[in-house]
Amino acid sequence: MNPIRTVLIAGAGAVGLTVAETLYRHDPKGLAILAAGERLERYRKKPLRINGTSFDFSLADPAADAANAFDLIIVASKYCHLNQIITDIKPFVGPETIILSLLNGINSEELIGQTYGRERLPLAMIVAIDAQHKDGEISFTRRGVVHFGDAEGKETERDMALARFFSGAELPFEYHRQDMKKNLWYKFMLNVGVNQTSALLRLPYRAFKKNHSGGIPEAHKILEGAMKEVIRIAQAEGIGLEEGDIYNWYTTVELLSDEGYTSMCQDVFAERKTEIELFGLTVMEYGKKHRIPTPVNELLYRALRAMEISYGAA
Prior knowledge:
Distance between the termini: 42 Å
Number of strands: 12
Largest sheet: 5 strands, parallel
Low-confidence stretches: none
Shape: globular
Strand order of the largest sheet: 5-2-1-6-7
CATH topology of the largest domain: Rossmann fold
Strand content: 15-25%
Structural class: alpha/beta
């Protein structure tokens, strides 16, 4: 497999632009941001800003007459935009293009792989990122760590190429030879708990810290209840999550800004569509599959959906 030299970021939100900032500093000519239609015009008129700095990113238009394949496409959109992203990246996918999905949830690799081939995609996620998206600008203090590995626990040329590239670009990463599927479910468990709870209660990270004067035990109980439902479902799926894994969250949240908010909470503040289908609804569907009750997630999903309807989100 050829070395990775060119990268397309599909999704210019908090995660996508945090990763793009690192890769741009490594090689600005090798990086582009996917942009089409109104978004393309907007980015041309007003450069994307990260931590107070404007970046002159190259823009890749799927409607352009000529399009070159990229070595790596990083998908970092919201889940509700994934189907459009799958369509828009088509001109940029070549025979050896690797696709890395940093979406939340547990099924984006399968959905992308249905169109472009599952072999292109390792399992992947980003954790410990505190990026905020406000007034068209991204800010962060922690850029997060990209975790990836093969779904079947194989050491592949694809994953070795990613590791070499991330190392050279100084993008924080961890390659997992084993247990990447468990790691993905672990992040799903965290997101199901803290994203939904924080969004419904509109609370910052400090509320979810155990050893903090601003910690709120009642909020902890809600997110733990949602996480426990995921653990029971994961075990039914053959994934080795345990209740002890919940408490690793409290170590992770200590690293995040007290005043920071989860991406879903930011969506609620901005009255945007959230990713509740990816979290609460997915847990409910798996619960029905395995006949496992999911009352906490059902309540979170319905309450957040009612909130979306109240402010007119699609």
